[in-house]
């Protein structure tokens, strides 16, 4: 059952509109906390991330495509509408953390909202960088709403076979 405000024509309850950003941030934080817990389970991480993304419907932040090539690891992060200066990129060990903020669109604040689909509020996403990449040589570029993060492969990092005695 949806609430119909006779003055606005919107089918969203006024309380939901008022606290929408806080709810989005809460679910984003919960999703990231679950990701952190699942990350400690080793190989479950990819399955856990997919489960969280399906459960929260991508509420945890922008969409990310990740590619692994012979010489580099690449992430494309969809952050259209977020100015470059509002995006932060951090590395904590093998975790790449992308955070930022979609600014609230205030230009029509005197109007009643009939539909609101554009993102607003802060976001935070973290992804695990596989071993064997030079996290100290990260290169990031922002163009046309896509943040591209490239990390070169450390070719000196090779698995070592241990002889059994």
Automatic annotation (TrEMBL):
The keyword Nucleotide-binding does not apply. This is 1788_t:CDS:1. CDD domains: ACD_sHsps-like. It holds the Pfam family HSP20. Keywords: Stress response. It comes from Ambispora gerdemannii. Belongs to the small heat shock protein (HSP20) family. InterPro entries: A-crystallin/Hsp20_dom, HSP20-like_chaperone, Small_HSP. Residues 55-165 form the SHSP domain. It comes from the Eukaryota. The keyword Metal-binding does not apply.
């Amino acid at each position: 059952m949806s609430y119909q405000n006779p003055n606005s024509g919107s089918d969203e309850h006024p309380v939901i509109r008022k606290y929408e950003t806080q709810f989005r941030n809460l679910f984003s934080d919960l999703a990231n906390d679950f990701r952190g817990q699942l990350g400690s389970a080793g190989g479950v991480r990819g399955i856990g991330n997919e489960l969280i993304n399906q459960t929260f419907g991508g509420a945890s932040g922008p969409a990310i495509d990740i590619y692994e090539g012979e010489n580099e690891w690449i992430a494309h992060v969809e952050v259209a509408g977020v100015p470059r200066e509002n995006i932060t990129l951090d590395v904590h060990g093998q975790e790449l953390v992308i955070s930022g903020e979609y600014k609230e669109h205030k230009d029509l604040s005197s109007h009643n909202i009939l539909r609101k689909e554009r993102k607003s509020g802060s976001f935070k996403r973290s992804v695990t960088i596989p071993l064997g990449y030079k996290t100290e040589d990260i290169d990031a570029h922002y163009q046309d709403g896509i943040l591209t993060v490239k990390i070169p492969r450390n070719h000196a990092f090779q698995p070592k076979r241990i002889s059994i005695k």
